[in-house]
Design a protein that fits this description.
Pfam families: ADH_N. The protein is α/β, with parallel strands linked by helices. Helix content is 35%, strand content 20%. It has 2 domains: 13-106 and 208-268, Quinone Oxidoreductase, Chain A, domain 1 (Alpha-Beta Complex); 120-199, Rossmann fold, CATH 3.40.50.
């Protein structure tokens, strides 16, 4: 931890008190230098989180003191107590969104929403299948799919606490939870092999940061607003989380890198 002087508040800048920020795999990869998006050093880590506006510059038009905000894009550096940031880099979210839900809104739920919206024209009654279903994205896919009337088949790795994990995913709205070992059975492998050849199954990569680069801020704001409405209706909750004081960041980073981790580490700032 370092104590730094805050820069002066510029014409279109906003002074933020950060409240909570998660530790995501992308954050670790950025620190390791292996991620596709790297911040110029020295840098503050953290790609998402939630903060509260303390003060605004005279040119700020859409934010006011007391507003809750999340980053509009990756690479903002959220693992800190305070920040002075340009208004255009921030999105306002409703103040009644639960803290941990707001802190984890900008990456995993957005990725899940785009994956369910952009690649196929899904309708109520359709089904999707996903692996890593206990991940942050996976938990969001289950809940958003449920809200859209879409059935979800969720694949997880076998583990000692499998019954508890299955119970938790079913409680989120999963229709089926199966293990990777079950998918390796010969009859299951043949089903997917045939589907890939005869049913035009396609393989596509998706990166939320790239989507943001290709769309304007209003598109991001509209999606976040839709997700916030789901939260307010009780259709979308935060992933399983463990809240940790910022001073214990070393332990939190280590815990986030353990295998079979289903609880996201959240730094309280």
């Amino acid at each position: 931890l370092k104590e730094l002087e805050l820069p002066a508040l510029g014409h279109s800048d906003v002074l933020i008190k950060m409240l909570a920020a998660p530790i995501n795999p992308a954050d670790i990869n950025m620190i390791q230098g292996t991620y596709a998006l790297l911040a110029p050093l020295p840098a503050v880590a953290g790609n998402e989180g939630v903060g509260r506006v303390l003060e605004v510059g005279p040119g700020v038009v859409a934010l006011s003191p007391g507003d809750c905000i999340i980053p509009a894009d990756a690479g903002l550096g959220t693992w800190r107590t305070h920040a002075v940031l340009p208004e255009h880099s921030l999105l306002r979210v409703p103040g009644d969104i639960p803290l941990l839900c707001a802190a984890t809104l900008g990456v995993n739920p957005c990725t899940a929403f785009r994956m369910l919206s952009d690649f196929e024209s899904l309708a109520p009654g359709d089904s999707v299948i996903q692996n890593a279903a206990n991940s942050g994205v996976g938990q969001a896919v289950i809940q958003i799919a449920k809200a859209m009337g879409i059935r979800s088949i969720n694949v997880v790795r076998d583990r000692p606490d499998l019954p508890q994990l299955v119970e938790r995913l079913l409680a989120l709205g999963a229709d089926h939870v199966v293990t990777e070992d079950a998918l390796r059975k010969p009859e299951m492998k043949e089903i997917f092999k045939s589907a890939f050849i005869f049913r035009d199954v396609r393989l596509r990569g998706f990166w939320m940061t790239q989507w943001k680069k290709e769309h304007d801020k209003q598109s991001m704001a509209s999606m976040v607003d839709t997700l916030c409405q789901m939260v307010q209706k009780g259709q979308l909750s935060a992933p399983a989380c463990t809240a940790v004081p910022l001073e214990e960041f070393r332990e939190a980073v280590a815990a986030s890198m353990q295998p079979f981790t289903s609880s996201k580490q959240i730094l309280l700032l």
